[in-house]
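Q: For a teaching session next week I want to show students how multiple molecules come together into a single three-dimensional assembly. I've collected the sequence lines for a complex. Could you give me the predicted structure tokens for the whole thing so I can convert them for display?
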Amino acid sequence: MTKPLITAYNWAPDEGRGLVRDMRVRWALEEVGQPYDVRYLNWGEQKEPAHRARNPFGQVPAYEEDGLTLFESGAIVLHIAERWPGLWPNDPAGRARAIEWMFAALNTVEPVVWDQVIARVIDGKESWASDRWPSVLERLRARLGELSQALGDNDWLDGEFSAGDLLMVQVLRHVGDPAILADYPNLKDYVARGMTRPAFKRALEALQAGQTGQPPAGWPQ
Amino acid sequence: MTKPVITAFDWVPWFAKGQVRDLRVRWALEEVGQDYEVRYLPQGTQKQPPHRMLQPFGQVPTYELDGLALFESGAIVLHIGEAHGGLLPGDADGRARAIEWMFAALNTVEPPISDYAIATLFEDHEPWSKPRLPSIVARISERLDELSRHLGESEWLDGGFSGGDLLMIAVLRQLKGTPLEAAHANLAAYVARGEARPAFRRALAAQLAGFTAKPPPEYAFLDQPPARQGESK
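A: Of course. Below is the structure for the complete assembly, covering every listed component.
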């Protein structure tokens, strides 16, 4: 078998913190011990036809393996979990619950986290941004409170570390203000626990080593 | 095997009727021909402990069968697709691509559409909602343009109808009644094609038939659309 080939940026505005979504796929591949190759794009190339053929929405990552091309980081992580052991339990019920947490991360928790990113980064300069911020925070805190309750004193969301934890930790890393997560100590520890996994560290190092490009011309410094 | 039990509401605001996420699960069960039972929750009880045991975020739907309890409509639709034929292709690559479209629907296309609902329904009275709307519409439009280009003249997103189409159509239906509904003729036809499926019609009828309760007094004003919007329909 050839190695899977993923698509990633050679420069991204997250300053190498591993918030770009190829991090999810790198981390999953590291967890299962599968080496991979990377096709790097300059920032902006994701919207060009060559990459749109891999991902119609012009995003990274894409994943190519033996004639199969996939996009959507959640679907790729799920594919990796099916292909190699290590990302969910062997029993069907445990596997279904790991998948449940994958969807919870991406369809229930990520939207409110992402709304907070948009409110801060994209809409931050709008005259109404500060008036709106409390409602953004309220929705985010409601979800974080529920997630915190669900996690309780456990290390991971459902038994052993799974693909659901992988995606949830990556989603929570987007909560920009450390003071927000600090109000949920078990979630703060949960994210830290994810980030100390050797597979996470290898994935982040690989991502950072790939940051050899430059910001596009005219990018605000 | 016993029948799966799902949860749904016995009353929702006018704008949520036909849109609550148990519809996605009902539709999937109808597509695969699996009977199911429904446990109806009075509005508000989804946030109380008995339901939170099943669904930590206090939402519907949930799915219970033979000791397995699941939440998240996407995960439940996938589970149904794996347990029965009819929602995922038989070949491994086709199956992976159907799952890809399930995630695309829920993680790429749905978030800006949900944001539109926040600005126009849940926060419509807030001073920031109107100025925010153009940027939300721009984000949705970008996704719809991309999806429309990908779909082209095809009937479904990738070969035969799949769980990916089911979720994508359920997501796009949330634009009904908005100016974005008819932005792309091929997407409008795609949604109509999904809604014409007998399984969808049965699922929708079943959801609507389940709204048998009166609204809680504090939500009575949300039982019917405001008169002006009713007239323009």
